[in-house]
Amino acid sequence: MKTKILSCLLLVVLFAFTADKPAYIIYNEKGKESSYEKMLAEAKDADIVLFGELHNNSICHWIEYELAKDLYAAKKEKLVLGAEMYEADNQLMIDEYFAGLYSERQFKDEAKLWKNNPTDYKPFFDFAKKNKLKFVATNVPRRYASMVYKKGFDVLDSLDLDAKKFIAPLPIKYDSTLKCYADMLKDTMQGHVEPNLPKAQALKDATMAYFIYKNYKKGDTFIHYNGAYHSNDYQSIGWYLLQLNPKLKIVTISTTEQEDISKLDKESINIAHFVICVPESMTKTY
Length: 286
Fold this sequence. Notes:
The protein has helices at residues 2-19, 36-44, 58-75, 91-98, 104-110, 117-130, 142-151, 161-164, 179-189, 197-214, 237-244; strands spanning 25-28, 48-53, 79-87, 135-139, 221-227, 250-258, 274-279. Strands 1-7-6-2-5-3-4 form a 7-stranded mixed β-sheet. It is an alpha/beta fold and 286 residues long. It has a single domain (24-279), classed as Rossmann fold, CATH 3.40.50.
């Protein structure tokens, strides 16, 4: 009788295991299964964490918030947050809002916020405000990226000195052989995109790196949220940061979606120190 009961219990456990549908699996750079705990431990010990997200992926937005909470528990006031989703010319507005100088409604009316801000970015933005943490708007104002997209880097020289405060120092260093830009150049040769697209991307990467480093102090951990393409392959923002300080310890996190997440696809191996693999069928935020 006991044997039958144990056999039934074993079948139930096996069925539960095989029927489980994990919302995500975290892999390391070698494509081996890892864990949130290992990712958090590496993030705690980093100077800068580049969290590469898919902008409409509900799982990575949740993990972004959880990672901020857990890093704060370990680092307290030595944690700094920043994000691609907020442009550098909004920094004064963010600082004033965090200081309580005007209402949230006024901030929303005047700030350039992404359409998914309420669901995806407001949680960790509010977390920074509540805990009196520095929050850095790192991205170049989109009007300047648009100018480079249309006319190349030289157009930036014509900007007023006040405008240049929101951009990485000129001239922008640019290496077209980096994979992140070379892949775009292949598309330009096929006529799919404008030839200056990689330069506009580099302007964003350089500017985000500049404002991250400008607001980083030794002993801090700066966690930065950006699209995965801005930090994949240890390039883009990371490359520009290392031009500023080769000794920085940078931990990169990326996000990918697959039909089957039980094994990381070959093309996602070694794109980051940690890869959050999410089912393609996961609910999107927009």
